[in-house]
Automatic annotation (TrEMBL):
Coiled-coil zones: none
Protein family per UniProt: Belongs to the geranylgeranyl reductase family. ChlP subfamily.
Gene3D superfamilies the record matches: FAD/NAD(P)-binding domain
Lineage, broadest ranks: Eukaryota, Viridiplantae, Streptophyta, Embryophyta, Tracheophyta
GO cellular component: chloroplast thylakoid membrane
Protein name: Geranylgeranyl diphosphate reductase, chloroplastic
Biological process annotations from GO: chlorophyll biosynthetic process; photosynthesis
Length: 453
């Protein structure tokens, strides 16, 4: 029954006009995107059809790459007017790589302050070169820009909530997307599906991609009096301590006319509001007189999903679980994974002319992604488990962050998404300092506990 319906829809959509090929408008195909001979069967009389579910950075970047590469692309977004709860910090390289105009950037952060549980403060911007900064954006602004660009590249934006995905049982039958748009239930048959629908991914559920553990992040947007806002002009703060999070950090990020104050935790989710209260206490004098204009919370994936590609469906961004531990960064990785997945489909389908297979998605997208980023995820995972374990290890982390070498290495890696060229002697010193700081702070921590007892 389901496959009959799918066949009907398939024929129905075959007669749809293809989206007109508009200029690429900002999207530049990467040099490595070469079209190679494929053994996949050609598609007759139409182009390959792809549904991208979710219009965040992952979905829009997927859709832009697909549409620019000749694939007939449908981008589903349930609420284009809303803003994803997010701190909105993005690395410098993203502006270039994704051609994000400077006018979208609210703040150029050049000072980062890390504050330890005992309020030891380290300024983290010493090694920044002129013109280097961390960009602060509002997600409603960034997301709507990226979605419009996907549309300009030829993707059809469908404002609708995807409620289900019928997975075909045969190799060439279509996937059927069920969605609600303008209060009516509709369906769309496609050849390929990309799940870019975030941490609660419907696509992941439909393809039985398995679960991952999630942190919960809570954030308040607070409008400050002018003189208080002045303090956060180009400054972002990270607070560490059991009072603000048992396993993550809390933050104050500056936005256009307000600050985002938030925190997150994996191991103690029911207490998230208590941690936010702890955070408000820590920043009390700096936000005095502020007015809360928005309160938001959202899950943050902790690890990649057990399955990220199945059949002709792939997951990208938060749906795939691509947020880094330690920093909780996900916007760049969402956009990057979306673009890589879109390009993989374009390449395997020879510009939308041929069918694609699971093996294509694995080879061209998954393996490439893992080869490029898996080690980064593992390293940050390790750092989080070493340094966010107790107040003593957090003190050690802040102490270490005072070192110029540590600052340069971590900022370069963050801002340019490449491992900064190190210096062997400095690496040895850094390792020795790490062990020294950890030991010293553990011993101090134990002494403090003993004194309290
Ligand atoms: C409080 C908080 C602060 C954060 N701060 C930062 C930060 O400062 N920097 C950083 O890099 N990362 C940050 N992150 C992580 C970052 O927000 C995510 O990694 C990023 O948004 C992932 O992008 P995405 O496109 O994969 O998913 P999302 O941004 O979640 O986008 C998914 C989209 O899919 C749509 N959608 C979902 N389900 C459906 C459906 N069934 N049908 C149709 N549409 C659907 C949603 O409306 C949404 O627009 C933060 C996260 C949180 C929660």
């Amino acid at each position: 029954m389901a496959s009959q319906a799918a066949h009907h829809l398939h024929s129905h959509f075959t007669s749809l006009p293809l989206p007109s090929r508009r200029p690429r408008n900002g999207y530049s195909a990467p040099r490595s995107l070469t079209v190679t001979a494929s053994k996949n069967p050609p598609i007759q009389g139409r182009k390959l059809r792809a549904a991208v579910v979710g219009g965040g950075p992952a979905g829009s970047s997927t859709a832009e790459a697909l549409a620019s590469g000749g694939v007939e692309t449908f981008l589903f977004e349930r609420s284009p007017a809303d803003a994803k709860p997010c701190g909105g910090a993005i690395p410098l390289c993203m502006l270039d790589e994704f051609r994000i105009p400077l006018r979208l950037v609210d703040r150029h952060v050049t000072e980062m302050r890390i504050i330890s549980p005992s309020n030891l403060t380290v300024d983290f911007g010493k090694t920044l070169q002129p013109g280097e900064f961390i960009a602060m954006v509002r997600r409603e602004v960034l997301d709507s820009f990226l979605r419009s660009r996907a549309e300009s590249a030829g993707a059809s934006l469908i404002t609708g909530l995807v409620t289900d995905l019928e997975v075909p049982t045969s190799g060439s039958a279509p996937y059927v997307v069920h969605y609600i748009s303008n209060s009516s239930r509709r369906t769309l048959a496609v050849d390929v599906v990309v799940g870019a629908d975030g941490a609660n991914s419907r696509v992941a559920k439909s393809i039985k991609a398995g679960d991952y553990s999630c942190a919960i992040a809570f954030q308040e947007r607070i409008r400050l009096p002018d003189e208080k806002m002045e303090y956060y002009q180009n400054l972002a703060e990270m607070y560490l301590g059991d009072d603000v999070s048992p396993d993550f950090y809390a933050w104050v990020f500056p936005k256009c006319d307000h600050v985002a104050v938030g925190t997150g935790t994996v191991c103690s989710k029911p207490d998230i509001k208590a941690f936010q209260r702890g955070m408000r206490e820590r920043v009390k004098p700096k936000i005095a007189g502020g007015k809360v204009i928005k309160v938001e919370a959202h899950p943050i994936p902790e690890h990649p999903r057990p399955v990220r590609v199945l059949g002709r469906a792939a997951l990208v961004g938060d749906a795939a679980g691509y947020v880094t531990k330690c920093s909780g960064e996900g916007i760049y990785f969402a956009a990057k994974s979306g673009r890589m997945c879109g390009e993989a489909i374009v390449k395997a389908s020879e510009g939308g002319m041929r069918a694609v297979t699971e093996e294509d998605l694995r080879r061209e997208y998954l393996r490439e992604w893992d080869a490029r980023y898996l080690s980064t995820y593992r390293l940050l995972d390790l750092l989080q488990s070493v340094f966010y374990r107790s107040n003593a290890t957090r003190e050690a982390l802040v102490e270490l962050c005072g070192g110029e070498y540590v600052q340069r290495m971590s900022l370069d890696s963050y801002m340019y998404k490449r491992l900064a060229a190190g210096n062997r002697w400095e690496d040895v010193k850094m390792a020795a300092n790490t062990v020294g700081s950890l030991l010293r702070c553990q011993i101090m921590g134990r002494r403090m506990e003993a004194l309290k007892a």
